[in-house]
């Protein structure tokens, strides 16, 4: 994780350097194209230096006429640019992320663009990036469902579409449960892909990986405040796939409640999928954790035969 963080921050440094090179190039372009603007800038620089010297030596009164002239020159420069059709702000630094000004941090906290870069790394390293190319709403098909299962999956599909559509304006959590191969992970991928395409940072973790991150933090195997651990509590959408497949201690299991509780307090959306029934979940997790799931989550059951087997039979 430290290596990844250093690589990402080095990328910010490169981006900021690129921003400054691009600004210098635009300034030089304007100097070449508008000699009058260059003359005004040179005059501004000379007067600004004089005003600074006077202010530093306590001669503030003498600097007043120079400051007035600087204001006049500023207005004149703006007019030269306007008359030449130069867009407002063209000569300013233009950042890839205006919120953090390409530093990765805003207000002392990780910027949304930094969280997005970290999340994208995990998608690419896990292979999920490629998976989302084939598992999304555009490729979703109802052909492997029939009867009551078809009506059920249509309701889940509509709810998932609604979840995406209202994501920016509402707080919602979803719990997908049902037997293996009924489309729970596929539907989670559909939601993840749609929101990522809209620029939302989505953290998608298998239950095994989720509890491994918790375990590393609890037992001191990971650096405190690591980006991985922080994402569990701060990413806009957390998706935990295959809850129940993990092996963890009671201390780690209690971490599940801590994460869900904190996300609830912050109104951050979470989607959980599991092959367990509600009764099986109750046996596996504490009543407190289960009540957190049942009390704040829209619960959707996936039914039908294993779609992967059906696809294999067709092929």
The CATH architecture of the largest domain can be named as 3-Layer(aba) Sandwich
Number of helices: 13
How many domains? The number is: 2
CATH topology of the largest domain: Rossmann fold
Helicity level, as a percent range?
55-70%
Q: In percent terms, what proportion of residues is strand?
A: 5-15%
Provide the CATH top-level class of the largest domain.
Answer: Alpha Beta
The shape is: elongated
Radius of gyration: 28 Å
Instruction: Let me know the largest β-sheet.
Output: 5 strands, parallel
Write structural notes for this entry.
With 315 residues, this protein is an alpha/beta fold. The protein folds into two domains: 2-83, no CATH class; 111-314, Rossmann fold (3-Layer(aba) Sandwich). 62% of the residues lie in helices and 10% in strands. Strands 4-5-6-3-7 form a five-stranded parallel sheet, with helices on both faces. Strands 1-2 form a two-stranded antiparallel ribbon. Helix 1 (2-33) crosses helix 2 (35-56). The longest helix is centred in the N-terminal third of the chain and has 32 residues, at 2-33. The protein is elongated and about 85 Å long. The two termini are 41 Å apart. The model has no long low-confidence stretch (mean pLDDT 87).
Keywords:
single chain, 315 residues, alpha/beta, Rossmann fold, 2 domains, five-stranded parallel sheet, two-stranded antiparallel sheet, 13 helices, 7 strands
